[in-house]
Specification:
Largest sheet: 8 strands, mixed
Number of strands: 12
Distance between the termini: 44 Å
Shape: globular
Order of helices and strands: EHHHHEEHHEHEHEEEHEEEE
Structural class: alpha/beta
Strand content: 15-25%
Strand order of the largest sheet: 1-11-10-9-7-4-5-6
Radius of gyration: 18 Å
Helix content: 25-40%
Length: about 270
């Protein structure tokens, strides 16, 4: 234990090293999939938010303002949300809900997470040593591309992004949706996220959209010194919590943050 109360961990980082920390009492659970059933039930709703077109910059700006009111303070994160059009990443029947703080189905048993949860995780990455020094997230590894919305946000705040998806149908969908960006920052990989992507390592920032019983060794190996990893991890008492890991020259530090509920982390490929 360091003087400031953080745990100093040695590699590798396993479940028994993570499970003992109590969750901060002052924070409520972040639910990236909350209101999914309601989203299905409301699929017939066609009204445009605030009477504005979905392509309007005002719609995105208002979402970013709500995120700011909810506690997000990093200007680059708020700017990214005000820039990237979320409605193009969701099914047409749900597009009118794209700028609400709700998760929405994207098919194949997966969802696009609530904007507030995505913003919270990206903002946590900005606390990493390398990110503070560079002024952006540097080289980012994203585990779980999904529909590609978070990858698009990350391209706004990083120097390069490698995003790995194990579901071929989602990988192909994200490639189609992200094609108009024509970003030379982004590389989409169809692969097993649990092994990361060694050719692009080391990464200054790693973010995962699924949680397992332990952080894979491969992620920790591919995290640069001075880098930060944010991921949900299963806890010994049940449920998941956001875990932040900083890699130092002498080892790994970790902090446990809010309780969350993400899809399970799985290995292997699925077509």
């Amino acid at each position: 234990m360091t003087a400031d109360g953080r745990s100093r961990l040695k590699f590798p980082l396993k479940l028994d090293r993570l499970a003992g920390a109590a969750l901060p009492a002052q924070r409520t659970m972040l639910r990236p999939q909350r209101n999914l059933a309601a989203a299905h039930a409301d699929a017939g709703r066609r009204g445009t938010p605030a009477g504005l077109g979905l392509d309007s910059a005002d719609v995105r700006r208002r979402m970013a303002e709500r995120l700011g009111d909810g506690g997000v303070v990093e200007p680059q994160v708020l700017s990214a949300f005000a820039t990237v059009p979320r409605h193009v990443f969701v099914d047409a029947a749900l597009a009118t809900q794209a700028y609400e703080d709700t998760s929405l189905p994207i098919g194949h048993g997966q969802t696009i997470s609530k904007p507030s949860v995505v913003a919270r995780m990206i903002e946590l990455l900005f606390g990493g040593t390398n990110a503070r020094q560079m002024g952006n997230l540097g080289a980012v590894l994203e585990i779980g591309t999904g529909c590609g919305y978070q990858a698009a946000l990350l391209c706004e705040v990083a120097s390069r992004v490698v995003s790995v998806e194990r579901l071929k149908t989602l990988h192909d969908k994200a490639r189609t949706l992200l094609a108009p960006m024509r970003s030379n920052k982004l590389r989409l990989v169809y692969g097993d996220g649990m092994v990361g992507h060694p050719p692009g390592a080391p990464y200054d920032s790693i973010i995962a959209a699924a949680g397992g019983a332990a952080l894979p060794d491969a992620w920790l190996e591919q995290l640069a010194i001075g880098g930060r990893l944010v991921s949900p991890v299963e806890q010994a008492g049940g449920g998941q919590a956001l875990v932040v890991v900083d890699r130092r020259a002498e080892g790994y530090d970790r902090r446990v943050h809010e309780a969350v509920r993400f899809v399970p982390l799985k290995s292997g490929l699925d077509r």
